[in-house]
Amino acid sequence: MGAVSRYFSAIGRTITTLGDGLAVTFSYLFRKPITIQYPDRLPRPLSQTLPERSRGILEVDLDICTGCSMCAKQCPIDCIDITVEKQEETKQRFITRFDIDIGKCMFCGLCAEACPSGAIRHSHEFEGSVTDARRLVLHFADRARPTAKPPKKGAEVKTAPRGAIVRPLLGQPDEPYRPPVKVALPAPPAKPASEQPAPAAGEGAAKESSDKKDDGGSK
Description:
27% of the residues lie in helices and 12% in strands.
């Protein structure tokens, strides 16, 4: 009898544990689904549901960039390439190149921590698949941008919404590769007439005499 009772008690325990597991499973039939039908059945873009501190593809707001190149210096794999040129006439510094190779980026966040103005940051965008690897290099400087002044300590810096800068650069996966356009410095502003250098004393008289000679020769 002992062996028979143990046999049937084992069967009873099997049915009980199976019922417990099925009860949990059946309870989800009457709950609201928590799964997401990615990517075509989303109530809102998935990037808007990510945590605030999530590290997506890097983006740069050149309107507040100081051109200090601290991000490029801190990058351990050299995926950031910056060129800053100075206009000799005005002594103004311009950013003519700011490229980030997201194919090399390891999303460590060191560049964002080193930036004094918060110009470079991680967006919430992560859908950056392309059919041409050359498109993984994002070119943020579409024209020469003047460098901004470093913000005061504790001051709030206004910037574009997160992801609004990099999303247009990513485009669609099957878009063809387009080489970047070389960015040139803007033309220096024209000086007012009052600041134009006055002609030397002898130059005006010499020009006037030459004009008279030309008039006499034509007659």
